[in-house]
Amino acid sequence: MSKTIIVSNRLPVKITEKDGEYVLNPSEGGLATGLGSIYRQGYNIWIGWPGLEVNEAYQPQIREQLTEMNLMPVYLTQEEINNYYEGFSNEILWPVFHYMSVYARYEQVYWDYYYQVNSKFRDVVLQVAEPGDVIWIHDYQLLLLPGMIRAEAPDVAIGYFQHIPFPSFELFRLIPWRAELLEGMLGADLLGFHTFDDSHHFLNAVTRLLPVNASANVVMANDRAVIAETFPMGIDNAKFEELSDDPEVLRQLESLKEAFGDTHMVLSIDRLDYSKGILQRLQAFELFLQLYPEYVEKVILYMIVVPSRDTVTQYKELRDAIDRLAGSINARFRTINWHPINYFYRSFPVETLAALYNFADIGLVTPMRDGMNLVSKEYVASRKHNNGVLILSEMAGASKELQDALIVNPNNIGAIARALHEALNMPLQEQTRRMKQMRQVVAKFNIAHWVKLFMARLQEVKQLQQSMLAR
Ligand code: GDG
Predict the structure, then answer these.
(1) What number is the average pLDDT over the span 141-164?
(2) Picking from 18-22, 138-142, 151-155, 400-404, which range would have the lowest pLDDT averaged per residue?
(3) What pLDDT digit, counting tens, does each position of 23-71 carry?
(4) Closest alpha carbon to 225 in 164, 157, 137, 306
(5) Nearest to 22 by CA among 58, 51, 47, 60
(6) Residue 323 is a catalytic residue
(7) Ligand 1: which atom is nearest the Cα of residue 30?
(8) Pairing relation of β-strands 45-49 and 4-10?
(9) Which residues lie across from 271 on neighbouring strands?
(10) pLDDT of residue 468
């Protein structure tokens, strides 16, 4: 019987280690939930790195525990983590794909490890893959994997989905190993991206860098038709709707009402990353207070930055710059009873996030570049009274779907400041009209829908190829 194999850099599990004891907990991210309907069934399986270096003596024991959860580990050494993950993935692909190529460091050793670790993933996949199986690979850490598997198992169906943007050719061409990366991707039968622009950029790069023929969204690679298409990812909408009525969320919502009363809350939630536009957002909020001083003591910016990669110099510098700017804005505008920015550098339980999504009058999401951006959709899904305003960057994939947000260019500080003013003055009727439209989109194109669509299309593409071969 054929099965489905999901492959991603990280397994959907959190492993913590204390005094040599390892504790495993399933992670609750949207992707893990969405793909749960697949990998938990029958012989299906999810392959990936457990997220930390596991002492060799404990590897068999953890493997056993993971097997019970239909998960299969790819163990990585510290050197592999440093060079394949921190290095090639996060210091080359991440910045270039987010249009921040000045941050890229094209080290040969990064490439060597990227190749080595992708081969390691291939070996683990091949231990379990059989003819007729469907393999779904996720994201930029594994660009070589489709090609590596195809070389050894020509008949399996391979899908690949990219969660981050695919940059324009002028950016992509900068990467020394650009052709090898594209050849790796073309091992898939179906390549999925969040937006039309991403798939278009991919197709453009392929036709300009490789000797292949392409027509519309079909690339002919070694007599195999490879299809690139758009699958905008959704969220677990039902979960956020349910959270809005959860007793713990309602309790926290009451506390927020007590603490902030009639003060308008502008909410911003991101991982620490230079692609998220956090400094520009702070500058815009400062300009807003300067342009519209009548809002002093009437508005706060509630800003959560979730720690990430902060041992890397650029991230540490960004964190310091955010600390300084938030501090200086608070020092400049604060009064005895009020300070304009509540800034947190840590993560919170999802119940707290849900309470904030419910409470905040404005969701402010202004990344410089973002594959999709799920926070914007979670804010919308949580607005059960159909009020509130979303301000959204045109550089986030989500802006293609959430067209009733106030759409801004995140580099235009003045435009963000004016959008804040417009949002605060938007009549309730207008808020409701916009929010209802967006809620319909988020509810319909949810994560389960996305998974179903991608899997169905992959089956279709595979059948199409087989019928072409039979002719
Ligand atoms: C990549 C792409 C694309 C945040 N803070 C806390 C917390 N979160 C959760 C949010 C949301 C998720 O993390 C962040 O998702 P994003 O989509 O905004 O961003 P990335 O992590 O960069 O994800 C992105 C995505 O892949 C999917 O394809 O949209 O463009 O970069 O779900 O709720 N969760 C909890 N506490 C926090 O403090 N529990």
Answers:
(1) 97
(2) 18-22
(3) 888 887 778 877 888 888 888 999 999 988 888 888 888 899 999 999 9
(4) 157
(5) 58
(6) no
(7) 32
(8) parallel
(9) 306
(10) 74
User: In whole angstroms, what is the distance from residue 36 CA to residue 435 CA?
Assistant: 29
Question: CA 424 to CA 420: how far, in whole Å?
Answer: 6
- Ligand 1 center–CA 10 separation, angstroms: 14
Residues 6+ apart with CB under 8 A from 470: none
Cα 371 from Cα 98, distance rounded (Å):
9
pTM score, whole prediction: 0.96
Q: What is the CA radius of gyration of the chain?
A: 23
Catalytic residue among 112, 163, 200, 310: 163
Instruction: Compute the distance between CA of residue 422 and CA of residue 302 in angstroms, rounded to an integer.
Output: 19
Residue 22 corresponds to which amino acid?
Y
Instruction: Give the Cβ contact number of residue 183 at 10 Å.
Output: 20
Alpha carbons 9 and 47: distance in angstroms, whole number: 8
Instruction: Report CA-CA distances (Å) from 460 to 53, 157, 467.
Output: 39, 10, 11
The residue whose CB lies within 8 Å of the most ligand 1 atoms, and thus the one to mutate among 235, 274, 366, 375, is 375
Closest ligand 1 atom to the C-alpha of 398? 29
Confidence at residue 345, expressed as pLDDT on a 0 to 100 scale: 96
Alpha-carbon distances of 81 from 16, 84, 210, rounded to whole Å? 17, 6, 30
* % pLDDT > 70, the chain: 99
What are 389's strand-pairing partners? 362
Which pLDDT score is estimated for 319? 96
Q: Report d(CA 355, CA 360) in Å as an integer.
A: 9
Tokens in use for 313? 């110099």
Whole-number Cα distances in Å, 340 to 274, 298, 364, 443: 23, 9, 15, 33
Whole-angstrom distance, CA of residue 189 vs CA of residue 147: 10
Round the average pLDDT of the chain to a whole number and report it: 95
The residue nearest atom 1 of ligand 1, judged by CA position, is 163
The three-state secondary structure class of 185 is helix
- Burial degree of 18 (CB within 10 A; 0-12, 13-18, 19+): exposed
Q: What is the mean pLDDT of residues 343-361?
A: 97
pLDDT at 339: 95
In short, whether 373's Cβ falls inside 6 Å of ligand 1 is: yes
In contact, 26 and 15? CB cutoff 8 Å:
no
Neighbours of 55 (CB within 10 A): 11
Cα separation, 112 vs 114, in Å, equals 6
Question: What is the sign, positive or negative, of the torsion defined by CA atoms of 170, 179, 395, 403?
Answer: positive
Distance 269 CA to ligand 1 centre (A): 9
In the annotation, is 163 catalytic? yes
